[in-house]
Amino acid sequence: MKDKRNLHQKVQELCDCFATTDPLSEMVKVSQEPDKEEAALKWVALAVLHGVTAGAEKIKIFRHADGSVAVRAKYREAPLRSPGAEIGGKVLDILKNVVGLEGEKRKSPLALGIRDSSLELKVSYEKKDSTETVSIKFPG
């Protein structure tokens, strides 16, 4: 039976678990995770940790009509490693679910506790033509 705890709680726990690791090298391993939902949760936690440690202003995840997923960080013009179509699609769905980006509500805060600190991110969702974009904006 699958663990159906709150997705927000799981992301928070994974942030705490990976807080002392190198998020980018851990992101490489995510595609090998057999449980794709768990992989997507790990990727969200690692993206948050990377954004915090690397001083990112914003991370955007794009899902195109063909199912492909791309990721960009605003602090530089180089894409982050995509988690792939299957995990990347779940990343978008999990982020939308965790912060409740449904219907007309397109922006919402996401509060996370990481070790002995707290962090409030701003998560937004946009669908333009056939591309969905979820943005994670870091405090700055």
What does this structure look like?
The chain is α+β, with helices and mostly antiparallel strands and 140 residues long. It has one domain: Beta-Lactamase. Helices cover 39% and strands 29% of the residues. The protein has a 6-stranded antiparallel β-sheet with strand order 3-2-1-6-5-4, covered by helices on one side. It is globular, with a radius of gyration of 14 Å. The N and C termini lie far apart (41 Å).
Which SSEs are present, and which pair or pack?
Blueprint: H1 7-18, H2 23-30, H3 36-54, E1 58-63, E2 69-73, E3 79-80, H4 85-99, E4 107-114, E5 117-128, E6 131-137
Antiparallel strand pairs: 1-2, 1-6, 2-3, 4-5, 5-6
Helix pairs in contact: 1-3, 2-3, 3-4
Characteristic terms for this protein:
140 residues, alpha+beta, Beta-Lactamase, 39% helix, globular
Question: Which blocks of ≥5 consecutive residues have pLDDT under 50?
Answer: none
Shape designation: globular
- Count of discrete structural domains: 1
CATH topology, anyone?
Answer: Beta-Lactamase
Number of E-type strands: 6
Give the CA-CA distance, first to last residue.
41 Å
**CATH arch. level architecture:** 2-Layer Sandwich
Compose a concise summary of this entry.
The protein is an alpha+beta fold and 140 residues long. The protein has four helices and six strands, in the order αααβββαβββ. A six-stranded antiparallel sheet has the order 3-2-1-6-5-4, with helices on one face.
